[in-house]
Design brief:
Elements lengths: L1 E5 L7 H15 L4 E3 L20 H18 L11 E6 L1 H11 L5 E7 L14 H12 L4 H6 L1 H9 L1 H8 L12 H5 L9 H9 L3 E6 L8 H11 L3 E3 L7 H20 L1
């Protein structure tokens, strides 16, 4: 069997591998094939392209193709010829996992959506900070971090969550951040789903899902995780806030995913 792991905006494949591999192996065994592609303009995907390349429709097709290629390279059968896949995505990865499942780009059996940040709105308030970072990176490069710290939009995030503020600053030190700044400008303009009725289609297709969120996260609002869970008719796991201790949050995240994967195997 195969599990697909998808990273967040500005991260790369190492993020979900580090976070989720222990949970997957604990739940389904160390022989599970784990595939974690880099999304366009992230990690080893060096091409940036044009603004239109960052639409979720195109990104989802690219990710699905990368998954198929990785499975083939590992000597596995095509997804259609083997057991359906499990897909786990965090933030941007959650949105792409949803699109892959809804658009039937891969045969998905189970889906885990961690800290969703995209909805049916283009550029919602909680994602407006990313185009600001992208423009500063394009204009000033990584040295623009000092300017960003002075912006009211950053101060607003830090006031709600110092951990979230530190996370935003990592965008300035990500590999090749300035050349890839377009990703931060264009990706937040996407909608993850059309409306709540589209979310409900996942259950109607027999795809089981889990949503995981945390309070006091201004970039990944817990209310949005609640909306995803309600629309998907999925269980919702509430983690402690990152500001209360990242190691504890990570441990409970892995525990929650492992428990759900074990339960849904039965």
């Amino acid at each position: 069997m195969t599990t697909v792991l998808l990273h967040g905006l500005g991260a790369d494949r190492r993020q979900p591998l580090d976070l989720f591999t222990p949970a997957v192996h604990a739940a389904v065994g160390a022989d599970e094939l784990i595939v974690a592609p880099d999304i366009r303009a992230h990690g080893g995907f060096l091409s940036v392209g044009d603004p239109a390349d960052f639409g979720f429709d195109r990104l989802a097709v690219e990710v699905a193709a990368a998954v198929r290629e990785a499975i083939e390279d590992a000597g596995g059968p095509s997804p259609e010829a083997s057991a359906p896949l499990t897909i786990v995505g965090i933030s941007l990865g959650a949105a792409l996992a949803l699109r892959i499942a809804l658009d039937d780009l891969l045969p998905i059996e189970r889906a885990v959506f961690v800290r969703p940040s995209f909805s049916d709105r283009s550029l919602p308030d909680h994602l407006r900070v990313f185009p600001v970072i992208g423009q500063i990176l394009a204009d000033a490069g990584p040295a623009g971090a000092d300017e960003f710290r002075e912006r009211a939009i950053f101060q607003h995030v830090v006031a709600a969550s110092p951990a979230a503020g530190r996370g935003l600053l990592t965008q300035f030190i990500a590999p090749d951040a300035a050349r890839r700044a377009m990703r931060l400008v264009e990706i937040p303009r996407n909608r993850a789903f059309r409306d709540d009725a589209e979310l409900a289609e996942l259950e109607a297709r027999g795809i089981r899902s889990l949503v995981i969120g945390a309070p006091r996260d201004p970039v990944h609002p817990y209310a949005l995780a609640e909306r995803w869970a309600a629309g998907l008719k999925a269980p919702l796991v509430e983690l402690p806030a990152r500001d209360d201790g990242l190691p504890v949050q990570t441990a409970l995240l892995r525990e929650g995913i492992a428990r759900w994967l074990q339960h849904t195997r039965a």
